[in-house]
């Protein structure tokens, strides 16, 4: 963790995550191996149509946290 004034604290008003109506957001840093696990085909043009069960489970988990913690 870094102090709120640190350049990596995520407080830059230019960051799209800081430009929402509520002023609250999350930003997830996902490794390449984790992203690759979300798709049957990880190619640039094939990812959108090859989301797998791992992707769906991850999205569901993130949505659940957002709905229960940040409403």
From TrEMBL:
Signal peptide: none annotated. Residues 1-21 are annotated as: Disordered. It holds the Pfam family Gamma_PGA_hydro. Keywords: Hydrolase. GO terms for molecular function: hydrolase activity. This is Poly-gamma-glutamate hydrolase family protein.
